[in-house]
C-alpha cells in the first residue's frame, strides 16, 4: 500500500475493519480467488470507495462485508465484532433496477425490510418510510409502483429504503453503472447532497476513476484479479464542482497510471 498518502489510521477507532481478507468462490471448473489478503480501515461518516477494474474482487469484497460470503483467510469486523452473517446494520444497494418488489408501491418497498427484520416498532414504519422517501425526493411518488418509475428514480427508492433502516454502513455496488451519463451524474450529486444532510457511512464500489474521485473522501485502489490493494488515497480536497480542474485531472491521471502501470507490470 502507498503510505505516502494521508492515512486516518490511529486517529480514531475504525467503524469497519477488513483485516487480511482472502475470498474465494467456486465455478463449475475451478475455485477462484477473488481477493488476496486485503486490509483497510473505514471510519464513521467516511465516503469510502473501492476502485478497480472489472474482476478485481471489489463486489465480492462488498458481499463479504455484508456478511454473505465468509473469508477463507482474515476477517471483517464492524465496531470490533466479527461479521459472520447479514444484518440490518449493513444495507446493500445493488446495480440492478429490479431490486424493488413490483407489486408494492414506493412506500411499501421502503417499509418491506422493516417488516422483514422487525428492526423498528410497527407503529413507526410508515413515518420512517415517508421520511426516507422525502429525503430522496420522491414524496409525490410514494403510492407509485416500480414499473412507472425511471431507472434513476428506482435507485433513489433503493437508497431511501436502505437508509430508512439506519444502517451503520451503507454498501453500494456500482449502483449507477447502468444509468445513462446524465442521470448518473445527477445521481452522484444527489448522493453527495444526501450525505451532506445525513452524514451516513458508505462503502461504494465502482470501476470509474472519475466517479470515485467525485464521491469519495477516501479511495482504495485495487489490482486486477485477484484483488489486492495498490494504494489508499485521500480524496477530501476534490469535490463535484472541480471535475474539470487541472488538479482533478492530474489526480485522475495518477490513479490511471497506478492501475495500468500495475497491469503492465503484472503481465510483463
Describe this structure in words.
The chain is an alpha/beta fold. The protein folds into two domains: 8-77 and 169-268, P-loop containing nucleotide triphosphate hydrolases (Rossmann fold, 3-Layer(aba) Sandwich); 98-167, no CATH class. Helix content is 34%, strand content 23%. It contains seven helices and ten strands. Strand 4 and strand 5 (81-82) form a beta hairpin. The radius of gyration is 19 Å and the shape is globular. The relative contact order is 0.18. The model is unreliable at 1-9 (pLDDT under 50). This is NitT/TauT family transport system ATP-binding protein. Belongs to the ABC transporter superfamily. One of its GO terms (molecular function) is ATP binding. Keywords: ATP-binding, Nucleotide-binding, Transport.
For the structure shown, list the relevant keywords.
globular, alpha/beta, 6-stranded mixed beta sheet, 4-stranded antiparallel beta sheet, 268 residues, 7 helices, Rossmann fold, 2 domains
List the helices and strands and how they pair.
Elements lengths: L15 E11 L4 E12 L4 E5 L6 H8 L7 E6 L2 E2 L7 E4 L12 H12 L7 H11 L15 H14 L4 E5 L7 H18 L3 E5 L2 H7 L2 E5 L6 E6 L11 H22 L1
Parallel strand pairs: 3-8, 3-9, 6-7, 7-8
Antiparallel strand pairs: 1-2, 1-4, 4-5, 9-10
Helix pairs in contact: 2-3, 2-4, 3-4
Amino acid at each position: 500500500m502507498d503510505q505516502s498518502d494521508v492515512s486516518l489510521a490511529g486517529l480514531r477507532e475504525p467503524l469497519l475493519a477488513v483485516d487480511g481478507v482472502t475470498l474465494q468462490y467456486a465455478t463449475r471448473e475451478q475455485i477462484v480467488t477473488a481477493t488476496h489478503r486485503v486490509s483497510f480501515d473505514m471510519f464513521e461518516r467516511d465516503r469510502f470507495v473501492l476502485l478497480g477494474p472489472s474482476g478485481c474482487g471489489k463486489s465480492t469484497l462488498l458481499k463479504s462485508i455484508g456478511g454473505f460470503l465468509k473469508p477463507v483467510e482474515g476477517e471483517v469486523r464492524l465496531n470490533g465484532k466479527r461479521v459472520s452473517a447479514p444484518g440490518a446494520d449493513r444495507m446493500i444497494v445493488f446495480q440492478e433496477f429490479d431490486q424493488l418488489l413490483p407489486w408494492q408501491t414506493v412506500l411499501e418497498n421502503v417499509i418491506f425490510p422493516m417488516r422483514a427484520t422487525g428492526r423498528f416498532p410497527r407503529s413507526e414504519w410508515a413515518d420512517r418510510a415517508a421520511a426516507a422517501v422525502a429525503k430522496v425526493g420522491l414524496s409525490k411518488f410514494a403510492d407509485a409502483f416500480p414499473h412507472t418509475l425511471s431507472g434513476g428514480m428506482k435507485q433513489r427508492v433503493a437508497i431511501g429504503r436502505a437508509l430508512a433502516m439506519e444502517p451503520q454502513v451503507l454498501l453500494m455496488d456500482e449502483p449507477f453503472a447502468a444509468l445513462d451519463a446524465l442521470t448518473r451524474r445527477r445521481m452522484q450529486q444527489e448522493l453527495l447532497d444526501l450525505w451532506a444532510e445525513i452524514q451516513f457511512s458508505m462503502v461504494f464500489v465502482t470501476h470509474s476513476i472519475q466517479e470515485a474521485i467525485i464521491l469519495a473522501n477516501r479511495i482504495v485502489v485495487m489490482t486486477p484479479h485477484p484483488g489486492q490493494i495498490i494504494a489508499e488515497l485521500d480524496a477530501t480536497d476534490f469535490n463535484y464542482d472541480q471535475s474539470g480542474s487541472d488538479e482533478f485531472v492530474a489526480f485522475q491521471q495518477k490513479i490511471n497510471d497506478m492501475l495500468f502501470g500495475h497491469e503492465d507490470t503484472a503481465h510483463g
